[in-house]
Amino acid sequence: MIIQPKIRGFICTTAHPVGCAKVVDAQIKYVKAKGHFEGPKNVLIIGASTGYGLASRIVATFGYGAKTIGVFYEKGADDKRTASAGWYNTAAFEEQALRENYYAKSINGDAFSHQIKQQTADLIRRDLGKVDLIVYSLASPRRVHPDTEQVFSSVLKPIGKTFVGKTVDPMRGEVKEITLEPASSDEIAQTVAVMGGEDWEMWVDFLAKENLLAEGVKTLAYDYVGPELTYPIYKEGTIGKAKEHLLQTAAKLQAKLNPYHGQALVSVNKALVTQASSAIPVVPLYISLLYKIMKEKGTHEGCIEQINRLFKNYVYGDLGAVRDQDGRARVDDLEMERDVQQKIMGLWGDVNTENLGELTDIEGYRDEFHRLFGFGVSGVDYSAEVDPVVKIESIGVG
Ligand code: NAI
Questions:
Q1: Residue 144: strand pairing partners
Q2: How many Cβ atoms are within 10 Å of 317's Cβ, its own excluded?
Q3: At 201, which CATH number?
Q4: Cα 189 to ligand 1 centre (Å)
Q5: Is residue 1 a part of any domain in this protein?
């Protein structure tokens, strides 16, 4: 099969196995170059195949020598379709991990379900004994509640009042105005049910009940805050409500982990191009400006740099006690620097379709979007035939 990108709105329906493998390899090389550290030994990553979760798995393995179990929801290839990017990423990750004698096994299925939690618990008991780090990095548009089978869908909407603002269609290069009507109370509740902390708590409760938490166990989840101009759609919108719930859950989990001398931590990470963030209105335009300014300043980071810094400084390092007023670790510090934000505010009003290429790093945004699916990676011959069926060592071909 000759595999080319097929972009529909904010997703790409194809992925390239060789390109994805190269992107994963670059992340592994970055972590290995930073050295080897003392930290977690047995790690469970929920949402381990792309974005921040994949970066967490790579840092845990190649930076700390940990054994990892990764849970995700991805598709293998069939006659007509390529596998999803997270499938190819995991195949490449496991191959390298095994080659270097690191334990790595993966479970593909719905992390919200009781069945996948049970399967994961059984694997932990059999192969690891207990876990000392649980990273919760799910981003999903829907959740089937495991007890009631009720289906919840998350929406990205403002709360309380209509939002009128700017956004960009990154592929077309068009800046346009969008109007978003406020969410109903049911939509808010559904978004909290999908992206809030209930499932995170269910995971920790279940693993505790199964006696699979090690002394000193830590659990981590990821949050975003961003600047005021994205508040109506992020911090003060439906997703922000879900993140508030995540933070409240961290406090509950902290109390539950005290007997283990453990820790439940929320980290505020930087805005980055991932499959999840490209679906959020306004954010892609903000990211295009942010990338330009941070790249010029020399402070730009991707998922792997962010998670490497999070683990080294905050989770297993000297800054362990440094928290914001809500008790969170902040690796969005470089994004939120005053001069960076002032420049973005200064440009926000002026940016339009005509000057988009000049004022923002829309090109960088597009490149990174393509790279999420293994496209636009140097050294890959995209005109060559490639077998889309790729085996994940611990799962098989799909
Ligand atoms: P992503 O879309 O790259 O990754 C989502 C992961 O969740 C994938 O591994 C996917 O397979 C898995 N997943 C989705 N539904 C699942 C299900 N039902 N069962 C099992 N696995 C499932 O997302 P990203 O951006 O890495 O987000 C991860 C977390 O980081 C989210 O909580 C997000 O809010 C947060 N975050 C993201 C930022 C960004 O700019 N991308 C910034 C700060 C925080």
A1: 151
A2: 14
A3: 3.40.50.720
A4: 19
A5: no
